[in-house]
Known about the structure:
The structure is a single chain. The chain has about 425 residues and is α+β, with helices and mostly antiparallel strands. It is built from six helices and 17 strands. Strand 4 (about 65-70) and strand 5 form a beta hairpin. The chain is elongated, with a radius of gyration of 32 Å. Mean pLDDT is about 80; it is low at about 1-5, about 5-20, about 275-285, about 320-325, about 380-395 and about 405-420.
Amino acid sequence: MLESxxxxxxxxxxxxxxxxxxxxxxxxxxxxxxxxxxxxxxxNGMDFSDCSISCMKHNxxxxxHAFNFKETDGSCQLIRKNQSHLVKSEGYQAYVQFLCLTDYxxxxxxxxxxxxxxxxxxxxxxxxxxxxxxxPGGFTDSHKVHVxxxxxxxxxxxxxxxxxxxxxxxxxPPPVYPDCRLSKIGKEYIGTxxxxxxxxxxxxxxxxxxxxxxxxxxxxxxxxxSFEEHFLNQEPSWHKNFCRNPTKMARPWCFVEDDGVKMEFxxxxxxxxxxxxxxxxxxxxxxxxxxxxxxxGGEYVGVKYRTISGFAxxxxxxxxxxxxxxxxxxxxxxxxxxxxxxxxxCRNANGNPGGPWCNIKDSQKPNLKWEYCxxxxxxxxxxxxxxxxxxxxxxxxxxxxxxREQHLAVCKNNQKLVRLV
Length: 421
């Protein structure tokens, strides 16, 4: 009855002032057991009408959208902020205009847009926040979008199409490299998805079933290359049973057992912004990963174009007719990306043990035909902790980084390594 009486008093007072052509806000009692925080002004020994009138007083720079009043001692707290939060009532009753002063419920990882307001508080009645999940699977409850609306029938209440629970991951984070593909066909993909679009488990690339029947399956294998040469780093065993695209099909795939060995495509999402800029190579500020996940670095698709000695790389298709360079044309399918006439970035299409390299031409050193590039490992600390991997959970390092320590002793001096073609 106390709240109803206060609301009636405010309404009568508002009507009297409206007759004088003065626009007066109306306040409503809200949030039993709670009051507004971030108080702007506090006064004592007031009655309810004095407190409400103090809040009504016009202040363009700091309008009063809400106040707290404690009837037992006449304490009055004014909220001259555009946004507030709730705390324990401590005997106060909260009052607010018909708007939303408190924050709207959030959906972690979701993309937000505003309808009916610009996102600046206080939110008007009917103002909406539209949530979209950028994860390829969308929201886990199968909704395409979710909405939070500043209620039209109750002051400072957000109505949502979702249940706001901290324990529920409604929108999983979008996949990040290397668990997504940078390019359309995903030749460079080295993530850990190991099931196909139909849900079948992938066979190991080095399994006896695959080795004995891969050439009888229409999967795009080049007869001029050995089976191993189709793979990044030329090591089928390193790729285990993860989805890959060794033959540059439409997208990553793998072999499955289905009344014989067959190939099936896998669902590998694109890496959002990275994929959009994959072919927009720039000499500085590249948006593709400037690091390698394996010792050999066959998956590297960055834009380094100088060797460890500072020599500029020559385009891969800049052939001079020798046997080594002619083989580049045959091995074009072994590169993790498309080879164009100007492509001179460090790569390792032939599985050299020292990592990415490139061809060079220097009149001072005519016998030096190629040299390694200084491509660092990706920061494996970023892959720490427990993470989902394919259809199982892995811990600690990303699986593609676990061979790092055992290869750290490999010498990078190209004078001590033999180039394999």
